[in-house]
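Please review the protein record below. Let me know how this chain folds according to its tokens.
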Amino acid sequence: MARTADPNARIALLTAAEAVFAERGVAAAKVEEIARRAHVSKGAFYLHFDSKEDALRAVVESFLARCAAVVSEACDVDELPSEADDVLQVCLDKDIELFEFFWQNRATLAILGGCQGPQAYLLEAFRKDVETRTAQWIDALKGAEAFRADVDSELVSVLLCGAYHELVHKLVASPKKPPIATWLLETQAAFVRGLGTSSYQEASERRQAAERNPSVTIKGRPRGRHESV
């Protein structure tokens, strides 16, 4: 009688494979170690995956699905606040939550950096989806008069995603947790200076001044939860 694949074993194998790939690298990873960490036999591994490469594909698919959910939440907003300072804070909060997720999963992100062949199309599809969602977010910012009406949303989405992609690389390479909020505040300020309306440029400058000097207030209100120095 054929053995039935245990779904719990598959989950354990995926978790173990992600850890082994991150620690050893894909080339040096061994099926035996993945199975041992998942507390299953080598034979049980092959009930779920045809090969180490098949397990890698499943790990990449699983991580990108989690990542897509976080990105979707970051890009989802029913209605933006009316005040420029509040809109900028909403954007910053969402970016920080996204990069905190990246920091917590930096080992897996390092795996993705070396993916080629069958996994490459998954990364490309994910990249295109993120660019599309970002363009929609930029449209929302234009509607809120945060960005100028003449801004090309699709072009800016490519530029913004490219900038964030490089920040993720820097994040993954950092030996200790970097000042994520400061990185993202400076990135936000750079894009607002180039693309924002005058009122948002002024608000962004106030926020940068408050970041540098704790005695500076933002319109007389206390700092938000991510507005510490």
